[in-house]
Design a protein that fits this description.
Chains: A alpha/beta, B alpha/beta, C alpha+beta
Strand order of the largest sheet of chain C: 14-15-16-13-10-17
Shape of chain C: globular
Number of helices of chain B: 14
Strand order of the largest sheet of chain B: 1-2-5-6-7-8
Strand content of chain C: 15-25%
Number of helices of chain C: 14
Helix content of chain B: 40-55%
Helix content of chain C: 40-55%
Oligomer: heterotrimer
Distance between the termini of chain B: 72 Å
């Protein structure tokens, strides 16, 4: 084909070349390979790329149990206290006999769910936890730990961890498993200097990036299946955000269904119908340039959440069925002031308590049945690197098990089209894929097929 | 494209080169620039006649330095360059043939392009057959279709590495100090090199060879640290290639903009017998204004028309004047009187201005309070 | 870009004059700063063409390199520059005090301050430092001994300039732009003369008129380090040719002087403008930090310390980033506490508010969670019209009482109830004046100026395998000293 045609044709959906094995088997094989490499002890480090919902936590728990069963001490590093607690609860659930230690900051109050567990010891001094098979703590807390040495370590969310945070911790272990999602948000700094750009140990890069650059022979594994994303979403998310490391959904089309009680013929309900039928919907408001806390868009997000829950949604999946409660619904956006505005709008629209409203940064790693997203580029005249960042859109569009509704003003394709390319290039810095522009374009292209135009709102419309 | 000829007038079209093609991405949202570039209008001449000449150009010292450095790199059949490439690729000197396209055969663009094409085609087929030997092609001449016009492009050098891939080589005189160079300059070089990669791929495809033989890693040759010694490094231009492909595709959609313009619109300067423009400046200005611009302060360093467009924005008291970030913070308000009117309560907000009006009134109040508080402090002190 | 700065710019357009966006000066201004205006030859990395510098506006020193491509002349220039700068820098190292701390250290009573026109001037200073600090006075390619010393100092100053809140080496365009909003864009604010024109136009001219005059590169040459292409072609190149033909430097000197003198005047005008602002409360504290770093470097260089390596090591980079982030946070918080205009930004975001105290429960005592004895916890109720976006539990401080921490108890429309947690003295009852009184106008903000202890990074020798293992010790070599400068 001609060059232009070759360049213009969309890249083919990435599917494994050979006959597709059952996803559970593919995932199990991948997990076994990871464990073999890690526990085999031939490598100081093993890296695992885990796309959204690929069973990262299950992998961590499985690996942790394998090490614990072999009787060797293990330390686990997580990035937030909540993640620490999540892991402890899951380990305890998987095997209540394992003695788990929680390394906490002085004055940290244990959460009720961890305090309730019998096999968990909590202390701020690592010596107190010497009898534990597994010690879990945040990166910040581990950094202050001296004079401890573990033969094994697991670092969770290693792509979201900045490489300077790894420095004090890496002296604590012999071998480590680094697990994380390369497609989500990169670590960042409020300080903007490019003094270290191109250096192999650039502290602003992620822990995995620096680790891999100094140790290029470390094995890199990929979890090939997303158990969270439905068949309607995995191909898009994989193609747009993981172009070099594709994955597939663990369920087939038809395995999941979202049912809503009958709705009204207005835009909000038609949007929800589209989402229930296809897994996606674009609730498109008229084009306009607005402030970030665009009242119309904010109201639309809240209204969609209210109507969704009012229509008694029921989710059908491979485990059976369950009614979708507020705690299984989330509204995601880019900025904290948008969060505040949406929360206020939810109160005004009578959205039941329990719906999560948060920024992409804080939604990382979390999962819901249905998500509503205020598109980062909505209402803007110009895009900035922040708003185009692929990781942000990836997080926002990969939290859901059933459906994702995007709220946006018309005009985003035009914005992308007009976007100037004037950024600087630093020597020695590997080019990052996917490019934010391309990712945004791919998502919009897809959403255009699920567009529901929304007329300007008024009471009761 | 006849419309474009009418727009340009009887002047010869300004030649495109890699730099100007790369500049297509500088402000794609600006229709004025898109039309001027598509029609090959001489923006500098227009700006000058309108009374807003663009002030930039390159310093003679920079030009001299660039020439001297290139000469150094390419001296003696590219001896220095070969040494660098050997280090970078592991090329064996004995295996590399050096060919200077400009020296052999007839002069003239067409002949030079034909020789380049033949050389590269043969090299590509040899590579495909596994017979590849290293070859350095100096002064190659490529062609590229840009919006319906054939443009000639002159990369510095093209190398065929023993592994069968073609690499574009860019020789630039800005320094790489301790492994780092100024990001803006590297980006410009990358964008320019991407144009050459694109053109080279098009050439191979036209000759029945595999365009993927052209690597997306270009070789950037620059002075090392503070000396004249060259150093070479790879620059991955995949993102620049993607942007370029998009911009070239956009060019073909120029009709959409043209359709909105009056059919007799022209930027003809009506040069007199001695070549000076005779068209009244304000008439020309009226014509130019028919095509909307999208001014941003960044235009001042990248576009010859910028000073005219800035004056226009000033007349309109457009918030664009203050920069993209400011305009963004002002929630889409287009003019400064609107902003101040809403802030000071002198203007009733339209229905869709309610939020930004609230915010501005708040800012206005806080600002006045802060000035008061400071005045009181000074009075007390 | 905040709405406040955007609004101020819009006002500036209408008023024809720059509008203040700060009410106090947030950087230290020395009583005797050294203005340094370097020029470089176009097309070269760091080939100096000349410089104008000095501490007295009436007595500038003019240094010129008649043939900027000549290596020996370049080093001669640096030696001349050192002859002027080093005495200025080293003088401040002489008077020191001992600071009581866990490990007592020396700190000079004052420190030098170098002012350059713009950020490219700082970049040039860094490059000049880099090109000189590895040279040696002995060995195969000797230079004057002051050259590597100046190189080390310039490198130190440029490194320090990256630190938020530091004032040792300052770009005047940035210093001015931090305090005034013009009616043009930030890009155009990069032109020092235009920026000053907006802030203080000459009599009879408006801000925009003065800025337009400043853009005329003949009337108002660029502030450097780059020169205008027309100047290069029409004035400088012929002057250099004349020098090469006749050996007379007069023409080149005149050409360079003509480019530097206007900027010299503008720089001192800018200094006056900044001096016209009262100093912010946080400035002396930040200047102390600068003084301490300066002293450390002075001791290190005086003891013959080797030049810093080309790159930070993994640990060095991490330590530096951590320090910069803390400095950034502290600087942002302090600026808001020191300046009601800066606080406006936080009020707009709902993270701070101002209002009037309408009720105080001074005698309130409670037993805090996790404690056994009752302590003073007065409640203060503030009425405010600000768009508050705080939640119970948020800890706030006030510019009037920056060491006192107040916890948000309740936020209702138009009212915030705060619990005062400390800063009331040691007595059984709150010390008089330590708690706001009814009728007092107060401001509270969710800010933390704390410059806490740094993150505990390992030492260089302990750099783990993840970051490439311990780096080789830097040993200056002959190759460094002979590095060509052509």
């Amino acid at each position: 084909m001609t060059l232009t045609a070759a360049l213009a044709a969309p890249p083919p959906l990435a599917l494994p070349a050979r006959a597709v094995p059952d996803p559970a088997r593919a995932a199990a094989e991948a997990t076994a390979a990871v464990l073999a490499d890690f526990t085999g002890g031939r490598h100081r480090g093993v890296i695992v790329d885990s796309p959204p919902g690929a069973g990262k936590s299950t992998l961590v728990v499985t690996a942790a149990r394998a090490i614990a069963d072999a009787g060797e001490p293990l330390m686990i590093v997580a990035q937030t206290n909540e993640q620490v607690d999540d892991l402890i609860v899951r380990i305890a659930a998987a095997d209540p006999r394992i003695a788990v230690g929680r390394l906490s900051a002085r004055g940290h109050t244990p959460s009720p769910r961890v305090a309730a567990l019998d096999g968990v010891t909590i202390s701020h001094a690592v010596d107190d936890l010497a009898g534990c098979a597994i010690v879990v703590g945040t990166a910040d807390k581990w950094a202050y730990t001296k004079a401890a040495r573990f033969p094994w370590a697991i670092v969770d969310e290693a792509y979201q961890m900045r490489s300077d945070k790894l420095l004090p911790i890496a002296t604590l272990f012999d071998r480590a498993l680094f697990v994380g999602d390369p497609g989500q948000l990169d670590p960042f700094s409020t300080v903007g200097v490019d003094r270290w750009a191109g250096l192999s140990w650039d502290p602003m890069q992620s822990a995995v990036a620096v680790l891999a650059r100094h140790n290029p022979d470390l094995p890199v594994h990929r979890l090939p299946v997303s158990w969270r994303l439905p068949a309607s979403a995995a191909p898009l998310v994989s193609q747009a955000f993981y172009p070099d490391t594709p994955f597939r959904s663990g369920t087939a089309a038809g395995d999941r269904r979202l049912e809503l009680a009958a709705g009204r013929p207005d835009a909000a309900d038609r949007t929800l119908d589209e989402a229930a039928a296809t897994g996606w919907a674009l609730h498109e408001l008229p084009a306009r340039h607005t402030v970030r806390t665009d009242a119309e868009a904010v109201r639309a997000c809240a209204r969609l959440a209210a109507r969704l829950l009012a229509r008694r949604p029921v989710a059908y999946d491979e485990h059976g069925s369950h009614p979708i409660g507020p705690d299984r619904v989330a509204i995601g956006c880019a900025h904290k002031d948008q969060v505040a505005a949406i929360r206020a709008a939810c109160a005004a629209e009578g959205v039941p308590d329990g719906v999560t409203v948060d920024t992409a940064n804080r939604l990382q790693g979390r999962e819901y049945d249905v998500t509503i997203v205020l598109h980062p580029l909505s209402g803007r005249r110009d895009a900035t690197a922040f708003h185009l960042e692929a990781g942000r859109l990836c997080v926002l569009t990969s939290r859901h098990r059933h459906a994702c509704v995007v709220v946006a003003r018309a005009g985003i394709p035009e914005l992308l089209d007009a976007h100037p390319s004037t950024g600087g290039v630093h020597l020695g810095v590997p080019v990052k894929f996917p490019d934010g522009w391309e990712a945004n374009h791919a998502v919009l292209d897809h959403l255009a097929r699920h567009r529901v135009p929304a007329v300007p709102d008024g009471p009761g419309r | 494209m006849n419309r474009l000829d009418v727009l340009r007038g009887p002047h010869p079209a300004v030649d495109h080169n890699a730099r100007t093609i790369a500049a297509l991405a500088a402000n794609p949202g600006c229709d004025r620039r898109a039309v001027f570039d598509a029609a090959g209008v001489d923006k500098r001449a227009i700006a000058r006649h309108l009374g807003h000449p663009a002030p930039f150009g390159q310093s003679v010292f920079a030009i001299t330095r660039a020439r001297a450095f290139e000469k150094l790199v390419k001296a003696d059949g590219c001896a220095e360059l070969l040494r660098l490439l050997r280090e970078l690729f592991g090329l064996d000197v004995g295996e590399v043939t050096y060919v200077d396209v400009a020296e052999t055969g007839e002069p003239g663009h067409a002949a030079r392009h034909a020789r380049t094409r033949d050389l590269l085609r043969d090299a590509a087929h040899a590579a495909a057959d596994g017979r590849a030997a290293g070859v350095l092609v100096d002064h190659p001449l490529l062609r590229l279709d840009v919006g319906g016009t054939e443009v000639h492009l002159e990369p510095d050098v093209i190398a065929l590495q023993a592994g069968g891939r073609f690499h574009v080589i860019a020789i630039k005189s800005f320094a790489i100090i301790d492994g780092q160079a100024e990001p803006a300059q590297v980006a410009a070089a990358a964008r320019q090199a991407a144009v050459y990669v694109h053109a080279l791929r098009a050439l191979l495809a036209a000759e029945g060879a595999d365009p993927a033989l052209v690597a997306h890693n270009v070789v950037l040759v620059c002075p090392k640290d503070f000396a004249n010694t060259p150093t070479a490094t790879f620059v991955d231009v995949r993102q620049q290639l993607a942007v370029l492909a998009r911009q070239l595709a956009r060019l073909t959609r120029i009709d959409r903009i043209l359709d909105r313009l009056p059919p007799d619109l022209t930027f003809d300067l009506r040069p007199g017998p001695d070549g000076t423009p005779t068209r009244p400046a304000d008439d020309l200005a009226r014509a130019v204004r028919q095509v909307p611009a999208r001014f941003a302060p960044e235009c001042l360093s990248t576009c010859d028309m910028a000073y005219f467009c800035r004056a226009e924005a000033r007349e309109q008291a457009a918030t664009d004047l203050l920069g993209r970030a400011v305009r963004d913070a002002l929630g889409g308000l287009a003019t400064i009187p609107e902003v101040l009117g809403l802030a000071e309560g002198a203007r009733e907000p339209a229905e869709d201005e309610a939020e930004i009006a609230d915010r501005l009134r708040l800012v206005h109040r806080f600002y006045a309070e802060a000035l008061d508080a400071a005045a009181r402090e000074v009075a007390v002190a | 870009m905040s709405v406040l700065a955007a609004f101020a710019r819009a006002r500036a357009v209408r008023e024809g004059r720059a509008q203040p966006i700060a009410t106090v000066r947030h950087l230290h201004l020395s009583p005797r700063p050294m203005v340094f205006i370097p020029l470089r030859l176009a097309g070269e990395a760091a080939a100096p063409l000349g410089a104008m510098l000095g501490t007295d506006p009436a007595e500038p020193h003019l240094l010129v390199v008649p043939q900027p491509r000549d290596r020996d002349q370049r080093f001669a220039f640096v030696a001349e520059l050192a002859a002027i700068m080093l005495p200025y820098l080293e003088r401040y190292a002489k008077d020191v005090e001992t600071v009581e701390a866990k490990t007592p250290y020396e700190r000079s009573l004052d420190a030098p301050q170098i002012l350059v026109p713009n950020p490219r001037g700082i970049a040039f200073t860094r490059l000049l430092g880099r090109s000189c600090r590895f040279r040696r006075a002995d060995g195969p390619y000797p230079v004057h001994p002051s050259v590597p010393v100046l190189g080390q100092w310039l490198t130190f100053l440029a490194d320090r300039a990256e630190f938020p809140g530091s004032s040792l080496l300052v770009a005047m365009t940035e210093a001015l732009a931090a305090h005034w909003a013009t009616g043009q864009s930030r890009v155009e604010d990069g032109n020092l003369a235009a920026l000053v024109g907006w802030i203080a136009p000459p009599d009879g001219m408006t801000g925009p008129e003065a800025a337009a005059a400043a853009e005329d590169m003949v009337w108002s040459p660029p502030a450097g380090p780059d020169t205008a292409p027309e100047f290069d072609a029409e004035v400088l190149a012929p002057a250099i040719r004349t020098y090469e033909a006749t050996g007379s430097v007069a023409q080149v000197r005149d050409a360079v002087r003509s480019q530097l003198e206007p900027t010299w005047r503008v720089m001192w005008r800018a200094v006056e403008l900044l001096r016209g602002l009262p100093e912010a409360r946080g400035v002396p504290g930040r200047w102390e930090r600068d003084r301490a770093e300066f002293t450390r470097e002075a001791i290190r260089i005086a003891e013959g310390g080797p030049p810093r390596g080309r790159h930070d090591s993994a640990v060095g980079a991490a330590v530096r980033l951590s320090a910069m982030e803390r400095a950034q946070q502290a600087f942002e918080a302090q600026r808001a506490l020191d300046d009601p205009m800066v606080m406006v930004e936080h009020r707009l975001e709902g993270r701070a508010f101002a209002g009037e105290v309408v009720a105080v429960e001074l005698e309130r005592r409670i037993v805090p969670p996790g404690r056994t004895r009752a302590v003073n916890r007065p409640l203060v109720t503030v009425v405010t019209a600000d768009p508050v976006r705080l939640a119970p539990g948020d800890v706030l401080i006030s510019p009037a009482r920056p060491r006192q921490h107040c916890e948000v108890v309740e936020v209702r429309r138009g009212t915030v109830v705060l619990q005062v947690n400390d800063g009331m003295g040691r007595g059984a009852r709150p010390a008089p004046g330590s708690v706001p009184e009814v009728g007092e106008i107060v401001c509270y903000a969710d800010l933390d100026p704390g410059d806490g202890p740094g993150f505990p990074f390992p030492s260089r020798e302990e750099t783990p395998w993840t970051h490439g293992g311990p780096p080789a010790e830097y040993v200056p070599t002959d190759e460094d000293a002979m590095e060509d400068w052509s």
